[in-house]
Amino acid sequence: MSNEIRVVITGVAGKMGKETAKAVLNGAPGLRLVGAVDPREAGVDLGEIIGVPGCEVKVSEHLGEVFASTKADVLVDFTNPQAVLHNAKTALENGTAPVIGTTGLDVVGIAELEKLAARSDKAVLIVPNFALGAVLMMDFARRAARYFKNVEIIEMHHDQKIDAPSGTAIKTAQMIQQQRESMRQGHPDEYEKLTGARGGEWEGIRIHSVRLPGWLLTRR
Predict the structure, then answer these.
(1) Which among 26, 88, 91, 95 is least surrounded, fewest beta carbons within 10 Å?
(2) According to the model, what pLDDT value does residue 22 have?
(3) What distance in Å separates the CA atoms of residue 12 and residue 95, rounded to the nearest whole number?
(4) Are 175 and 202 in contact (CB under 8 A)?
(5) 141, 129 Cβ separation under 8 angstroms
(6) How high is the pLDDT of residue 220?
(7) pLDDT below 50 — which residues of the chain?
């Protein structure tokens, strides 16, 4: 169908990549999966990885090769902080709009993507968290900051997560900051006996990252 949105997924062998591929292949309205990229599973039939037989999509190693053989409209990226900027730039250079679910982009990288997006006339969507509950939590935190100026963020993930703090925690801090000016919290003479004991700081908001191997199991 001519009005279908043609989708490519990078990091397709990861947890979020697999779930996104399943969603598209299982009949997400108006979407068609035309490419999948992940060096870990290059050459493998995508159906074997995600348990959807007959999908007729092979996993590629290089994103550029996929763009050369498809007319993709959207790239969904679930890779890592080292690859995400390159992937997003490659997408824009090929006239494809990136949807970025990977955390780790810094302000310099985001500014670069903004310039490329303006030149290519394509949108870039950066999504710190795809869970509806997390999106609502961030919005509730922003609203609450109108009335509660003092806040610290504690975020928890499994111990295999490679970045800290999480993109969700950073975005939450940014949204809180929309409602309050930068401020120093706590005692003015406070000091750390151990470096990092008070967590990271963003515009006066302390962010603490907990990483434990069994956390995903114990929270359910």
Answers:
(1) 26
(2) 94
(3) 21
(4) no
(5) no
(6) 45
(7) 1, 218-220
Q: What phi, psi does 144 have (nearest 5°)?
A: -65, -30
How far apart CA 166 and CA 157 sit, in angstroms, is: 8
User: What are the residue numbers of the active site?
Assistant: 157, 161
Distance CA 55, CA 64 (A): 21
pLDDT at 1: 46
**Three-class secondary structure assignment of 5-62:** EEEEEECCCCHHHHHHHHHHHCCCCCEEEEEEECHHHCCCEHHHHHCCCCCCCEEECC
Structure tokens at 217: 């199991």
Structural domains of the chain, with CATH: 5-126 (3.40.50.720), 132-218 (3.30.360.10)
pLDDT of residue 210: 94
Tell me the Cα Rg of the chain.
20
Which residue type occupies 191? Y
What's the pLDDT at 215?
A: 61
